[in-house]
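Our working data are protein records whose layout never changes between entries. An example says more than a description, so a record of this kind follows.
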Amino acid sequence: MDERMRFVIRLKDGESMASLCREFDISRKTGYKIFERYEQCGLEGLTDRNRRPFRHANQLPEQVETAIVAAKREKPHWGARKIRERLLRKLPHTIKIPVASTIHAVLDRHGLDGLNPNDLWFADYKGEFQLGDKRYCHPLTVTDQASRFLMLCEALESIREDLAFQAFERLFRERGLPRSIRSDNGVPFASPHGLFQLSRLSVWWLRLGIAIERIRPGHPQQNGRNERMHLPLKQEATRPAGANFLQQQAKFDAFLEVADRLGVDKASLANWENNRTKPGFAYMAAIIRFLGYNPLPPSDGCA
């Protein structure tokens, strides 16, 4: 908004549209549109407009979402699969019932997933990338479903099973054992040649009493929370990449430490740092303690 306001003020002071558009690196069409919005709506016309569509082609019908929430509240211990079976029986056949992963997402959105920390972890590898020394890094990440915390981000030289064993041993010592771990069907979490596609790693988890959940092949959205976390991780800790594995691990550790000390998940932290969202009031005391100063501008007393 500040850039648009400066543009309009200078235009009203008599500067030419062409020279201002060149200076602000915008087209004349955009320049005229900004000025027309100001003429029609005043300062409000200079604010960012909501680009969210009025409706989404795949948006869940309100009737179905209401039925999902009602079923969960009636049967708090039911999971997405049981709720889906109930909807198939109760709702008319003309209504398309969503898959279990969509029902999971609805419950999560309404705070009804019913999970506690360490109930379910998501394990995955973020895509490989090249370090400064030309070697490739394969980050192993583990996220907790309930708290949304990224608990592990290990810079590994490959997806070898022995490296994953070492990383999970350290994590289990630090965080305890989860009830379940959800992963994709790739190595080292699964083995295409093993009985029931079990790898040595997943057999070890079972022996420790950890239940195994696998997403359907070709459906990464079922591990969506971990997939979404990979974007801020990539932006904050791999651009630029470290010169070697030690430097890259230090960048991952710094990314983990700041969020842990503020008590917020990594995606929210990245959104704050890139001005996509602002921290809530509840986090301000921790932010001030961490920074040593108040980052917010002083209030001018205006409402």
Summary: The two ends are 19 Å apart (CA to CA). Confidence is low (pLDDT under 50) at residues 299-303.
